[in-house]
Amino acid sequence: NESFRNKNNNQDIVKLQNSIITIYNAVEMIDQLKNAANNYDWDEMSNLLQSQTLKYDLEVSCNYLRSATQFLDYDARQDIGFDWGSCAWRHCGAQADAQESLAELYNSIGLFEP
């Protein structure tokens, strides 16, 4: 049983590390989005916004971190928050903020193109 517990704990640590790396990758992509916007590169912005990292991986990582009670305290998990569509009247947190911001960017690509 101890071997099983250690294996599961190691898998959880790997998931935690991968989730953190994914969030860092998403932040780097946001910086790339800023550069693309400054250069009026709407196609690049669209490609970045539709990437797996921003459309899927970021959400999966946030969901994992929000449920990682063995690694993160209550306040840290509250900061991550909930999915944009399910936060209702409670404090939504960073996950919902990111989803809303990315949706606004995607819907506004090229809106002010000269």
Describe what you observe in this structure:
It is a single chain. The chain has 114 residues and is mostly helical. It is built from 5 helices and no strands. α1 packs antiparallel against α2 (42-49). It is globular, with a radius of gyration of 17 Å. The termini are far apart. The relative contact order is 0.12.
Structure, briefly:
This protein has 114 residues and is mostly helical.
Q: So what's the oligomer here?
A: single chain
Strand segment tally: 0
Tell me the series of helices and strands, N- to C-terminal.
Answer: HHHHH
How far is the first residue's CA from the last residue's CA?
A: 65 Å
Number of helices: 5
**Beta-strand share of residues:** under 5%
Characteristics of this structure?
114 residues, mainly alpha, globular
Draw up the topology in text:
Layout: H1 2-38, H2 42-49, H3 52-66, H4 74-80, H5 94-108
Helix pairs in contact: 1-2, 1-3, 3-4
